[in-house]
Amino acid sequence: MWSQLPENKHNNAPKNPRVYDSDMPTFTTDVRMQKVGDLFATSVGKASSDEQVQGSGGGGPCEAVYWIKEKGMQWRMKGTAFIVAPDIEGGEESSGVRTVKSEAGARMRVVEGGEGKEGEWSWGRELTGHFGNCSPGMRGSWRNPPPGTPVKGEPDKDHQLAQKVEDLHDPIARSNFRVVIIKPDEVEQTDLSDPATARRYRYTFDGNAQDGKGEWKMEELWP
């Protein structure tokens, strides 16, 4: 979940203090992948310029499915997805950066003991933490030749397959690395662990509940 990176003894990136938690899953991607442009183009602002797509922003509709085989459980979530890029911190804030911080920030809850420490938490540090959470081989994938482009001769020396990146600030890998935050509005949990008692549970987020803090409302359904 965004703002809740798990402990990883192999991740030597600086860590944010424990200030927030959230209900927003994340995944990593490459800015050169089509999904990044799609999330910008289908957002409310319908951003499509190359300059905008290279930065933070997005907000297009997103749906994700997780199947937990060991538990016989499926999770399906629908919502919007936001891109966190290197411009998220340090420099003049773009409209995309403001959108990410506003939309994702609205669902980041201060944990017990975190009150008054909000200023110690850094969006940029969290982004680097996600990069550090990947293996050197995975980090190297952000130095691959551009995904989906035709194979024509040998790629240049900076874009080769099977590279391993140890440097958390490798300029080429970091320029392509992105974290995607899924902000779910609806989540369905389908429990198939026992066919005799199979159930589906639909959780819908009500942003107006709890004095504007929002809450999840659950409805039990047949699967």
Describe this structure in words.
- The chain is of the alpha+beta class and 223 residues long.
- The protein contains six helices and eight strands.
- The protein has helices at 34-41, 50-53, 95-105, 123-132, 136-140, 171-176, and strands at 20-22, 26-30, 57-68, 73-84, 108-110, 177-191, 199-206, 215-221.
- Strands 2, 3, 4, 6, 7 and 8 form a six-stranded antiparallel β-sheet that branches. A two-stranded antiparallel sheet has the order 1-5.
- It is globular, with a radius of gyration of 19 Å.
- It starts with 19 loop residues before the first strand and ends with a strand.
Question: What does this entry show, briefly?
Answer:
This protein is an alpha+beta fold.
Relative strand content: 25-35%
Give the termini distance in whole angstroms.
Answer: 26 Å
Shape: globular
Question: Which structural class fits the helix and strand makeup?
Answer: alpha+beta
The largest sheet, given as strand count, sense and whether it forms a barrel, is:
6 strands, antiparallel
Question: Please, what is the oligomeric state?
Answer: single chain
Please give the number of β-strands: 8
Number of helices: 6
Detail the poorly predicted runs: none
